[in-house]
């Protein structure tokens, strides 16, 4: 494991600029990312990259902007400055499962299928296969609101994996998992890497950092920390 | 834009709505109760019923839009276009709204006995057609449920409190149906351009919803099953 691609440095100001071309097997490259929410500076000159077959962990204290960086790289949040280049379909698994409470797992799969260019039958079949791998009770017609936290998270993860995903972005995907599911999750990460996916995972667990190829550590931007102390 | 990419979101919106049985009962009972409570004054009862129907259908649309928002971003990331999700939702909610309108038209025609019952039916149908885009626009704009409901109460409440001849009333989304319902009781009330103005209003609200949804989805949708190179040089600070 190599580590240290630390970013989010204080003081630097990067504005716009041209996109960096992706190197050979690089699937994701983000650089100079800055983001404010109102007066709060969340990210400053942050960077992230991931290659095919590589697992990258984003770590950092609460409020360091880990989820924001991931959402920017997924294209869900527009940064104030910086560039993101991505090659291939992105599968994004949010921290809070983005599910319809009153729909069951198969209905979620059927809903996602047309978006991915899959027929309903193919989408449900492929989704059930993924859910089975994650030890989700396949064929269960329980509505999402009545699923356990772990089961909701497995459905959340399966939806991110559905389709021809090349870059997998996981925001603390194992919340609610029991020990067995957690161990199994990392076995899956190893398999996804072997299949050539770029896997980016946000985690708070130190043990996880030994299971990835590279760490990206974020810290709270200095300006925001200073303002916080002044307040 | 394939049919399935609109029909499947419509179907899932329908399944969600159908499972909210208590809410469905209340959404249907609300306009009937409002109408019945003021049925002794025929002219006022029609407008009160119309406004309650707008509350009911627009309320359902607001909650459909707000409930879907966290999932919509994933659906767009997966490959849906925001307008496909919007059109699917619109189709299903209009179907629901027209169902409520059919029931409510029958009740009001028999309950009030208007001199021009076609105008009454047209007014009620127009409420349904306008309420859904209005609710979807509020749902797209409001940050949370509370703000959405307060926006609904504000607009619809003002409409209820105004005479249809007042200038401000003419600027609100339910002025057209209001004129039609008044005309159904008193044929001397001129309808004028109420219908095209209201349909134009509904279309403008729909376009506004689509615009807001698109703004929330900052990257272009990914085409299905193809690899894409995405680069978004971002707005400068």
Itemize the secondary structure elements and their pairings.
The complex is a heterodimer of chains A (231) and B (237).
Chain A: E1 26-37, E2 40-51, E3 55-60, H1 66-74, E4 81-87, E5 89-93, H2 105-112, H3 120-133, H4 149-161, E6 165-171, H5 179-194, E7 198-202, E8 214-218, H6 222-230
Parallel strand pairs in A: 3-7, 3-8, 5-6, 6-7
Antiparallel strand pairs in A: 1-2, 1-4
Chain B: H1 4-19, H2 21-37, H3 42-78, H4 82-112, H5 117-141, H6 145-161, H7 167-170, H8 175-185, H9 194-216, E1 229-231
Helix pairs in contact in B: 1-4, 2-3, 2-4, 3-4, 3-5, 3-6, 3-8, 4-5, 5-6, 5-8, 5-9, 8-9
Structural account:
The complex is a heterodimer of chains A (231) and B (237). Chain A is built from 6 helices and 8 strands; from the N terminus they run E-E-E-H-E-E-H-H-H-E-H-E-E-H. By secondary structure, chain A is an alpha/beta fold. Chain A has a 5-stranded parallel sheet with strand order 5-6-7-3-8, with helices on both faces. In chain A, helix 2 crosses helix 3. The longest helix of chain A has 16 residues. The radius of gyration of chain A is 18 Å and the shape is globular. The N and C termini of chain A lie far apart (40 Å). The N terminus of chain A is likely disordered. With 237 residues, chain B is mostly helical. The longest helix of chain B has 37 residues. Chain B is globular and about 55 Å long. At the A-B interface, strand 4, strand 5 and helix 2 of A face helix 1, helix 3 and strand 1 of B. Strand 4 of chain A pairs antiparallel with strand 1 of chain B.
């Amino acid at each position: 494991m190599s580590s240290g691609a630390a970013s989010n440095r204080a003081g630097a100001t990067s504005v716009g600029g041209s996109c960096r071309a992706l190197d050979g097997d690089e699937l994701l490259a983000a650089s100079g990312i800055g983001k404010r929410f109102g007066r709060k500076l969340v990210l400053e000159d942050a960077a992230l990259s991931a290659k095919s077959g590589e697992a990258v962990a984003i770590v950092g204290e609460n409020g360091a902007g880990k989820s924001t960086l991931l959402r920017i790289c997924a294209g869900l949040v527009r940064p104030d400055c910086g560039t993101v280049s991505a090659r291939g379909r992105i599968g994004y698994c949010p921290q809070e499962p983005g599910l319809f409470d009153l729909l069951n797992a198969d209905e979620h799969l059927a809903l996602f299928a047309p978006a991915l260019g899959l027929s309903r039958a193919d989408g449900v079949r492929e989704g059930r296969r993924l859910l089975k791998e994650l030890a989700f009770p396949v064929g269960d017609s329980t509505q999402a609101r009545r699923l356990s936290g772990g089961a909701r998270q497995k459905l959340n993860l399966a939806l991110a994996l559905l389709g021809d995903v090349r870059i997998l972005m996981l925001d603390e995907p194992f919340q609610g998992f029991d020990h067995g599911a957690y161990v199994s999750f990392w076995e899956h990460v190893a398999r996804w890497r072997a299949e050539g996916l770029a896997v980016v995972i946000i985690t708070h667990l130190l043990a996880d950092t030994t299971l990835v190829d590279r760490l990206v550590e974020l810290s709270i931007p200095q300006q925001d920390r200073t303002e916080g102390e002044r307040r | 834009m394939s049919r399935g990419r609109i029909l499947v979101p419509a179907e899932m919106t329908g399944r969600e709505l159908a499972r909210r049985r208590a809410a469905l009962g209340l959404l249907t009972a609300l306009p009937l109760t409002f109408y019945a409570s003021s049925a002794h004054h025929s002219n006022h009862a029609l407008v009160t019923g119309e406004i309650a129907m707008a509350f009911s259908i627009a309320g359902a649309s607001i909650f459909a839009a707000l409930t879907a928002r966290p999932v919509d971003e994933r659906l767009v990331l997966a490959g849906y276009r925001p307008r496909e999700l919007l059109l699917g939702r619109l189709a299903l909610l209009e179907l629901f709204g027209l169902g409520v309108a059919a029931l409510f038209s029958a009740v009001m025609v028999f309950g009030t006995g208007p001199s021009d019952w076609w105008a009454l039916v047209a007014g009620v149908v127009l409420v349904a057609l306008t309420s859904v885009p209005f609710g979807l626009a509020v749902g797209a704009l409001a940050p949370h449920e509370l703000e959405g409901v307060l926006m609904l109460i504000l607009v619809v409440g003002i409409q209820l409190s105004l005479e249809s001849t007042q200038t401000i009333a003419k600027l609100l989304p339910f002025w057209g149906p209001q004129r039609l319902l008044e005309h159904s009781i008193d044929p001397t009330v001129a309808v004028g351009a109420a219908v095209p103005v209201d349909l134009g209003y509904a279309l403008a609200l729909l376009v506004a919803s689509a615009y807001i949804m698109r703004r929330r989805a900052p990257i272009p949708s990914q085409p299905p099953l193809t690899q894409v190179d995405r680069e978004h040089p971002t707005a400068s600070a």
